[in-house]
Every structure is written in C-alpha cells, then in structure tokens.
C-alpha cells in the first residue's frame, strides 16, 4: 500500500521536483558514495557515484516478452549459445509463451548478462554498475545505513535463509527502501554491468593478477565491514557468474544516467 | 596487409561456395542476417559474431572476423603490465615456437588491451618493438570500453582497473579454431603450453 502511495506521489509530483524528473518506473538515486567491500591496497576507501535513475523494481516476464517479440534473435529457440547457456528462459512455456512458471508480473530470471544488456539497450537504458547498485542498496527502509537498521537487516537475512519460491512472486511487491526502490533484496539476485570486476573466486588465487588471496579466510580482514554479510554474499555471488549463465533466481533491472 | 587480404578473400569465396554446396545448412541464428553483413554465416558459437571494431598498432580498423579461416591464439593484456602479461606473451611465444612450421605460418597471435586509455596504437607499437613481436604473426588491438567488455565477457575474462591505473585480470590464453569458436583455454600462469600447442595444431587441420 505504501508503495502504491509512493508511486502515486511520484506520478502526481509537480514539475520541478526531483521525483517528477525521474522517467516512469524509475527513481533518482542522488549523488553519493559507494564504499567497496573489498579493495586493492591503493584503492580509495570510497568511490563517488553520480546521481542516476534506477528501475523501481526488476524487469518482469511480461516486459521481457515484449522485448523478445520484437527481437527474435533473443527468443529461447534462437538465441546464440555464445550469449546464453542452455536453460535460457527455461521457466517459460515457449518462445513467446510465459506459462504457469513465469507469471507476467514476476521478475524475469534465467537470462544471461548478454540478454539483460540487450534488453536494457532496447529500452534506451543500461545495466547499473556494481557501484550504482550497491549505492542504491546501501540504505534501509528508513535510514541511510541499511546494514545497521535491524528491520532491514532482518528482512535481508530472512530472504537468504529461505529457498527461492516457484513461481516467483510479483516484482515490486516488496517494501520500498529509503530511495523508493523495491526488491533490491528479497526477491532475486540481479546482474550488474561490471559483475566481472568481482575477482574473488578460487580463480583469483590461481589466475588473476592483483587480488589474489582476497577471498580466502584472511582476505576478509581487509574488508570494509566484516559484519556486512549481505555485501559478502553479493560479492561472492557475482564472482561466481559468467556472462552466459542463466540462473533460476537471477534477474536484473535497468539504470539510466540523467 | 593488403597482400594478406587477397588469400583471405579467396578463402572466403571458397567457403561461400562450400556453403552453397550444402544449401539449407545455414544455422537458424543467421536466418535474419543480411547478405552484406555476413557473406557466409558464422557458426552459433563463433566469436566472430561480435561486431566490435578494433584498431591495430598501425592505426588500421580491424574486426575479429577478419581472422576467420586461421587458428588464433588470443589473450587480453595491457602494455603497462609488469607482472602477468609479459609471462602470458612469453608463453604464447613458446607455444608458437613449438608449433609445426606449417601450422605456425597460418596461426595468428592476438593481444587485446584492457587499457582503453593508455594503449593507443603508438603505445601498442612500442610494446611490439619492446617485446619483439613479429608483425607477420602478432596482432595488437585496442578497442572501445564496450567492445573490450563484451570480448572479456565472451572469453570469461575478469578484469578490474585499480586506483593507480593498473588492471587486475584473469590470466587466460584462448585458442580459436578456424571458425572463431573457442577450442581451448589455458587458465593461470603455469603449464598448459603443450595443450595449447596441441589445440592449435588440431584447429589448423
């Protein structure tokens, strides 16, 4: 209900206000800082993030259906295996049919990074960067520090502890955070444009340059905030991905620069 | 370079003829391709579907698809790298030296830079000279951040620019077959030269 009110307010806001400037379905994330969870020795403690717009909720099946209808090469049976692994849109009933496992208003999942990026481009948008996404997700429901806000933290940890429901619930039904953005935690994981900058897998010890040992036990000592469990989860999750992966609980949302 | 284009054209024509012989075998992914965009359809796993435009160290614009028809050994690097990249180039050179002469003659060794700011054609040219990379065999490329990112994503290369302009990156050598499909990847900085040589030799058949 709160969300509806916020949306109505956003739509009704008078010209000249910040909300009125945001494209439909997006919220302005004001200029701020992103404090990376893990960083190399010479990296700055925080990175400035210029103001940007972020979708209020993840992209839905219905929205993605419209994309594949006008872009046939992204349909399930036609997509190049270079750009999406087998199982792409695997919960859909067919190339152009959602079916019972993919309700129209639920977030689209089982999409590769390539597909997510193509969708965003088609919409005239882009994928958010890691810095932007983390900046948007850093606030709680009512305070600017989600990680120290008990209710917010509890909501995130509850989500981690529960299996992914099938089919997924509707996107945008979650409680909005302080920026008015929903479902940054609690529904699905989300692609970011530069997910491949998370060099914190077993691989980073074997074959990546500077960040070796970053994620093995002792590595966490160098982390910004060792209590920020959700941030560790996200960093670990991103580092495990490849751009062609399709995952049953991985979707995306779009961003736009003002 | 001009003299190299002629055999390639001849090869492309031959391939087009081969496609004509097997009419109906065009992969469905390319049903929508226009004739001028793809004279002969790329396989669905071919990296040559990527449409990125690259610039080599002499300032010429090239596409990866221009390598079609040859085995390719490719790595991403940056010329200011003092640790891993020289080792990668060294290993690629070792692999080249170990190839049978006929295979070596047709194989191209491609280095693509992460450093879209500093690795200008001139910087790549200086790198070629410093590393003594034979112009007939080695191709050094720079591209836009979006094209570099897309190639890295397709190869599975992770990279991150740090505060002092250096890049943390996966150490990966990729062998592409004649069609631009990934035939083999050597991950890490140890071993795998013999496997790389083997993969290139197979790709050349």
Overview in brief:
Chain A has helices spanning 2-12, 18-21, 61-70, 113-122, 130-137, 150-161, 202-206, 229-239; strands at 26-29, 32-34, 47-49, 52-55, 189-190, 250-251, 255-256. With 258 residues, chain A is of the alpha+beta class.
Q: What about the largest sheet of chain A?
A: 3 strands, antiparallel
Strand order across the largest sheet of chain B: 2-1-5-4-3-8-9
What low-confidence regions of chain A span 5 or more consecutive residues with pLDDT below 50?
A: 7-19, 200-221
Averaged pLDDT of chain B, please? 84
Molecular shape of chain B: globular
> Rg of chain B from C-alpha positions?
17 Å
Order of helices and strands of chain B: HEEEHHEHEHEEEEH
The CATH class assignment of the largest domain in chain B is Alpha Beta
Give the strand content of chain A.
5-15%
Number of strands of chain B: 9
The class by helix and strand makeup of chain A works out as: alpha+beta
What is the count of DSSP helices of chain A, taking H or I runs of 4+ residues?
8
State the CATH superfamily name of the largest domain in chain B: Glutaredoxin
Q: N-to-C terminal Cα separation of chain A, in Å?
A: 29 Å
How is the CATH topology of the largest domain in chain B named?
Glutaredoxin
Please characterize this protein's 3D structure.
The complex is a heterodimer of chains A (258) and B (205). Chain A has 8 helices and 7 strands; from the N terminus they run H-H-E-E-E-E-H-H-H-H-E-H-H-E-E. Chain A is globular, with a radius of gyration of 18 Å. Chain A starts with a helix and ends with a strand. Chain A has helices at residues 2-12, 18-21, 61-70, 113-122, 130-137, 150-161, 202-206, 229-239, and strands at 26-29, 32-34, 47-49, 52-55, 189-190, 250-251, 255-256. Chain A has a domain at 31-59 and 122-256. Chain A is an alpha+beta fold and 258 residues long. Chain B has 205 residues and is α+β, with helices and mostly antiparallel strands. In chain B, the strands form 2 sheets. Chain B has a 7-stranded mixed sheet with strand order 2-1-5-4-3-8-9. Chain B folds into 2 domains: 1-41; 48-204, Glutaredoxin. Chain A binds chain B through residues 40, 42-44, 72-73, 77-82, 113-114, 193-194, 196-199, 203-204, 206-211, 239, 242-244, and chain B through 28-29, 32, 44-47, 49, 81, 83-84, 149, 152-154, 156-160, 162-164, 166-172, 187-189.
């Amino acid at each position: 209900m709160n969300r509806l009110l916020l949306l109505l307010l956003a739509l009704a806001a008078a010209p000249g206000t910040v909300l009125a400037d945001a494209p439909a379905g997006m919220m302005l994330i004001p200029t701020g800082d992103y404090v990376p969870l893990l960083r190399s020795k010479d990296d700055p403690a925080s990175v400035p993030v210029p103001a940007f717009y972020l979708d209020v909720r993840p992209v839905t099946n219905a929205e993605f259906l419209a994309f594949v209808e006008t872009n046939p090469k992204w349909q399930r049976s036609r997509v190049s295996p270079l750009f999406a692994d087998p199982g792409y849109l695997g919960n859909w009933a067919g190339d152009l049919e959602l079916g019972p496992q993919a309700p129209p208003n639920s977030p689209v999942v089982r999409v590769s990074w390539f597909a997510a990026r193509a969708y965003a481009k088609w919409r005239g948008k882009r994928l958010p960067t890691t810095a932007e996404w983390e900046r948007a997700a850093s606030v709680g429901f009512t305070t600017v520090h989600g990680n120290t806000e008990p209710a917010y933290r509890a909501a995130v940890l509850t989500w981690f502890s529960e299996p992914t429901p099938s089919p997924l619930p509707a996107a945008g039904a979650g409680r909005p955070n302080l920026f008015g953005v929903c479902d940054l935690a609690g529904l699905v994981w989300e692609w970011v444009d530069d997910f491949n900058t998370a060099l914190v897998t077993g691989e980073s010890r074997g074959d990546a340059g500077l960040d070796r040992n970053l994620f093995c036990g002792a590595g966490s000592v160098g982390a910004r905030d060792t209590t920020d469990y959700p941030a560790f989860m996200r960093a670990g999750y991103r580092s495990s991905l490849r751009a062609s992966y399709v995952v049953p609980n991985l979707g995306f949302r779009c961003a736009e620069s003002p | 370079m001009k003299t190299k284009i002629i055999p390639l054209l001849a090869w492309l024509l031959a391939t087009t003829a081969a496609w004509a012989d097997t009419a109906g075998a065009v992969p469905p992914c390319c049903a929508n391709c226009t004739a001028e965009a793809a004279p002969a359809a790329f396989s669905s796993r071919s990296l040559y579907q990527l449409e990125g435009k690259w610039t080599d160290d002499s300032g010429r614009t090239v596409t990866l698809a221009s390598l079609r028809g040859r085995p390719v050994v490719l790595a991403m690097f940056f010329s200011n790298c003092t640790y891993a990249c020289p080792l990668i180039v060294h290993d690629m050179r070792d692999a080249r030296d170990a190839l049978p002469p006929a295979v070596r003659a047709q194989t191209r060794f491609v280095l693509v830079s992460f450093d879209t700011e500093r690795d200008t054609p001139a910087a790549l040219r200086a790198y070629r000279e410093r590393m003594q990379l034979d112009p007939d065999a080695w191709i050094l490329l720079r591209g836009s951040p979006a094209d570099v990112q897309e190639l890295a994503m397709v190869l599975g290369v992770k990279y991150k620019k740090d505060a002092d302009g250096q890049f943390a990156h996966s150490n990966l050598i990729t062998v592409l077959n004649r069609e631009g499909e990934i035939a083999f990847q050597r991950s890490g900085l140890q071993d795998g030269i013999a496997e790389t040589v083997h993969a290139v030799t197979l790709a050349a058949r």
